[in-house]
Amino acid sequence: MPDIMIYILIALASYGLGSIPFSKIFSRFIIKTDLRKSGSKNLGALNTFRATKKKHGVIAGLLAFLCIFSLDALKAIIAAYFAHEIGPVPGISLAIATFFVVLGHNYSVFLNFTGGRGAASFIGILLFFSPKAFLGYFIIILSSMMIAEVIAGRKINKHFMKHSVSDQIIGRLIGETIGIIWIGATAPILTLSAIITTPLILIAHKERLSEQLSKIKNKTYLND
Fold first, then answer.
1. pTM for this one?
2. What is the pLDDT of residue 39?
């Protein structure tokens, strides 16, 4: 089979896997909640946690988060693994699989081309192929969110970490962008994957970014 056909098959299969909306399925049949009308209105693990916690408590919320995060990560790992194994050039095959599985997650064919934000899927691939790259990537993003929160004027107290993780979008996006450098240094085979997939994740956060910028402009960000 020509290489181009293999790449096309990888793209189509990855997009199909990425399109499976686990959070939508879980919220509809398990907690009977429309995530589009709850919390951040995002179809992802974190909003599944919020919705489940609201109805069934913290423990149930954490279990729901782990379930959805793991499933979103797993579908990406499956796509990337098979692309790596059958693709003509592993780095290119991985990049195609990573891009299209996140594209499917963010713009699912089953949800009228809407979806989540793709972070769990991308993180799953990092964790599977290079735990070291994942750990550094995670630390960079968390540090960026905390630093940005301090710059924004947030006091360091028992709620500081919660606000940093839940509300600090500017810091998160900066961290995800800087994280590309770390991935390139520690997992070269994933460099192209990170470069072409990160913009998808950034674009998916545009509404929350706009919301944070508006709150900062109106001096209401620290009121949350």
1. 0.91
2. 76
Q: For tokens 């599944």, what's the residue?
A: 48
**What φ, ψ does residue 87 adopt, rounded to 5°?**
-70, 150
- Give backbone dihedrals phi and psi of 54, rounded to 5 degrees, phi first: -60, -35
Is 4 buried (19+), middle (13-18) or exposed (0-12) by CB count in 10 A? exposed
Kindly report the number of other CB atoms within 10 A of residue 21's CB atom: 22
Q: How far apart are CA 21 and CA 120, in angstroms?
A: 13
Q: Give the start-to-end residue ranges of the domains of the chain.
A: 1-127, 130-224
The secondary structure of 184-218 as a DSSP string is HHH-GGGHHHHHHHHHHHHHHTHHHHHHHHHHHHT
pLDDT of 220 over the 90 cut = no
pLDDT tens digits, 155-211: 888 889 888 888 899 999 999 999 999 999 999 999 999 999 999 999 999 998 999
Q: Which residue has the tokens 């686990």?
A: 22
With 0-12 CB in 10 A as exposed, 13-18 as middle and 19+ as buried, what is 73? buried
